[in-house]
Amino acid sequence: MAVAHQGGTETRLREAVAERLGEARFGLWFGEGVQLGVSGDALEVGVPNAFFREWIQGHFASNLIEAAEAVTGRPLRLTFRVFDEAEPKVGGVIEPGPPDERRRPTVTIPMSPAPRPPASPPERPRNQSRPPRRLDDFVTGPCNRLAHAAAVEMVQSSGSAFNPLVVHAGVGLGKTHLLEGIGRALRARHPGLRLIQATAEVFTNSFLDAMRTGTLASFRSRYRGAEALILDDVHFLAAKRATQDEFLHTFNALIADGAPIVLAADQHPKRIARLTDELATRFLGGMVVKLDTPDLATRRAILKAKAAARGVDVPEAILDYIAEHLRASVRELEGALHSLIAHALLTGKRIDMALARTALRDTIRHTAQAVALRDVERIVCQLFEVEPDALKSVSRARALTYPRMLAMYLIRKHTGAAYSEIGRHFGGRNHSTVISAEKKVLGWLRDEQRTSLLPGFETIADVLAALERMLGV
Ligand code: ADP
Ligand code: MG
Fold first, then answer.
1. How far is the CA of 175 from the centre of ligand 2 (A)?
2. Which of 57, 105, 294, 296 has the fewest CB atoms within 10 Å, i.e. the most exposed one?
3. Burial (Cβ within 10 Å: 0-12, 13-18, ≥19) of residue 10
């Protein structure tokens, strides 16, 4: 695909991205070797390898899209071009980062301490060489027990107990793991099963290809003739009208045949913006289960299992230390463990508390994003489907006071903003208004306040958790 590098667009894009990420992070991830360009309706990011693609996609997608819109004045989608398709080795082989150090972009500004390649292995693309994950390796706790049980039931009943199964959760909480586990177990139980296991992105691209090349008939017979379908990341279908219609037909055909369908999404189907009502309703026709962030005991159990799987003896106290400090996702826990083991091997040191602190620092440095007041505002507006100006208005309508209070609370929690600054931002309100908003939200959290504010959410805590996931904190 030809990328237009015309008229300094790249320079302006780079400036806009740098402005959003800060010089340090920009220098680390968008230095030499990473290109930005506009091609048709896409912002195309040229990266040296898949590792970079995963990392940039996972951490900076929204910053990039925002920057591109600011520069071009229109919304663009994000695409990647990988210069070297060779996969970095992660997982089984201990590697602190991309294997080819020379391909990393040069760090253009001094950083202290010296930047390291991120320790956590990125989510692998689907053409991976490792075997799919297993349901048996999925560690359960209160956060995911129901989802795991539903997955097992889906395998045993082949969809006759309920159909479809929809698993939803934020990133790194085990959706893909469960889906892979189901696929593997279905295959083991029914050798020769015509199972299609893909992402919604693959479905979309195959469909568009089939339209373009006039091969819709074979596309349809392939998908509609499947005996089981597992589709990951269905939120990718949002706003893609033609693909959604096509998928609806696929879905209906399979359900009519009694073929099991398993879907994963980053939100409750009702909350996936710009998914047709018809499709959302179909998704709710079977079982919808959520994966929550793991509690302390589950985090410990996961770390223990992962350390054992790698054949490394990590003292309990160290596992506890990591489990106590990293709460956001399982992927983050894996990242810290990976970093811990890598450091131990590279330095030849024993695994002790000092090493654990380093591992945590590595993981935190690369996962935690500096959150700005406007990030929170944008996310809150997106979830509640309100305009930023409305949040700043004097209106005391419930539809606005709730999101406003939640935004104030989250800004206090995740940014360094002072009460007075937050008040000023939200239409020149007094700092005491912000203090009382924060108190109110804390009260709701304490009382496990239920809410009917948004379909798909039971409690205020659920709403806040979703917002925090969207913020990537
Ligand atoms: P998602 O698809 O929700 O973003 P993944 O399924 O890719 O998340 O999970 C991220 C990582 O965490 C994977 O390596 C996965 O194996 C691991 N993981 C998630 N949940 C569990 C669990 N309950 N037990 C063991 N490993 C888990
Ligand atoms: Mg996934």
1. 5
2. 296
3. middle
